[in-house]
């Protein structure tokens, strides 16, 4: 059993940032990471053309702003280099291939008891911490809904976390399900490779550019959010006009 003040679950950007903040204040802590590397989503499961969807001034980690000469929307490889340098700067040393199986809080002791399986040895390690930080990420696991007929579909199916480039789909027909950041950008990437691309959108959406979002985030420092939302929608309408002819409906509220 190992005791520590703070235990962090996950060595993605949030976990790394938490570790850096604790190190600056000399607070003992441990990071447990289920993969064999930090920032595994960025290093293993990100598509080639990925860039930060927000401007760099909103995406720096604590105590280390991005370089002034870096692009506004930082490419994946450049962001990975930034994370590598961040880990070196703050001497962050996660314990890899630890899969947290349980975490319980002891009211009497006022401490957390965390059990993690060491994937390499197969053994279970026990940690006791005063504070538990869960930084496992909202996108750490892929989800594919059960769709009638999907099992018998003769074509290829894959989750966005497995997508790398549209090159392998050249001159094919591809349906993208979902219009979040990944869905929209993957559809755009496919079209650049001559792929006949269609996209399924479940609900009405507002289509905005990264620059509109950037302007909105800047104004959100000074104006109420509902006013910023109105401004963003207005800019989108001016830029794109009526998108219903493409099957894209805007929310009515």
UniProtKB/TrEMBL annotation:
The chain crosses the membrane at residues 222-240. Its EC number is 1.14.13.168. Keywords: Auxin biosynthesis, FAD, Flavoprotein, Membrane, Monooxygenase, NADP, Oxidoreductase, Transmembrane, Transmembrane helix. Pathway: Plant hormone metabolism; auxin biosynthesis. It catalyses: indole-3-pyruvate + NADPH + O2 + H(+) = (indol-3-yl)acetate + CO2 + NADP(+) + H2O. It is an enzyme of class 1 (oxidoreductase). Gene3D superfamilies: FAD/NAD(P)-binding domain. InterPro entries: Auxin_biosynth/cation_transpt (IPR050982), FAD/NAD-bd_sf (IPR036188), Flavin_mOase-like (IPR020946). GO terms for biological process: auxin biosynthetic process. The keyword Flavoprotein applies. One of its GO terms (molecular function) is indole-3-pyruvate monooxygenase activity. The keyword Transmembrane applies. Belongs to the FMO family. PANTHER family: DISULFIDE OXIDOREDUCTASE_MONOOXYGENASE_OXIDOREDUCTASE, FLAVIN-BINDING MONOOXYGENASE-LIKE PROTEIN (AFU_ORTHOLOGUE AFUA_4G09220). This is indole-3-pyruvate monooxygenase. The lineage of its organism: Eukaryota, Viridiplantae, Streptophyta, Embryophyta, Tracheophyta.
